[in-house]
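Help!! Second protein's tokens look totally different from the first
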Amino acid sequence: MTRETARPLAVVVVEKVGWRQGLRAVTYLAAWGLASDAAGHPVTVQEYTDHWNQSLSLSYKEREAFSTVWPELDSPEVMWDQIKRQVRNRSSKSVAAADALAVRLP
């Protein structure tokens, strides 16, 4: 899919699972990415839980939402790398959460 036909992440997740699950999936993607960047490696669900100091059950709910949107992915790693590449290619302005939602997917 070319850049012209790529669609924003927010549109893709809402069409697939709706706002509530979509937001949970995207939140997990970003939070997982930040935890992994801080750890220096792709984190497990337990490491994610520890990093964000939340319950393991909540972490699994968030992970499940991610898997609902992207069942073909074992980990958010590929998506997170794609987002970081696209953000890096933008201007040097600080990136808000809205920028992540505007990332275009093939």
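Here's the second one for comparison:
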Amino acid sequence: MRKRRITMTCKLEAKELDTIPQLKHIQIGDIKKVATTMLEAYKRTVDQQEETLEEAIREVEKITNDGYGPFIAEASYWIELNNEAAAVICINLWNGRPLITEIYTGKNYHRQGLARTLILASMNTLFHKGYSEIELNVTLENTKALHLYNSLGFTKINQKTKY
């Protein structure tokens, strides 16, 4: 099934965070927790790609091992709640610009502002590292994500089709 996706961009500037939960950087020992949440967050959604935990682990390992361009570890975070990865953001350098490779929230933690917090924290880190903008790709059918990105100042730069 083909997905209609667009690329969005946002200028980076220092942003104020309303709340600052304990953000963690993704370490080797966190891969299984992060992958478990990826699998659960995307299950039965338009963005589901991985079917098994092993596939999700391989995908997180690919991201963190520069499989989508250099992994920017210092701008990639996860939030741990109740001994699980509640929300995760991964940033890679793609075509010279930071790209949100993954952003997802576990189903038990929706509507708590965790994705917004992660995006703002990553944007702040990238701004202070000297980057001027950030990009992401989003599936058009994912209207909740589109609303979040628009509210943070992301704008559509082109349309492309992925599958």
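Reply: Different proteins will give different token patterns, so don't panic. The beta strands are 3-11, 23-25, 77-81, 84-94, 97-105, 133-139, 155-162.
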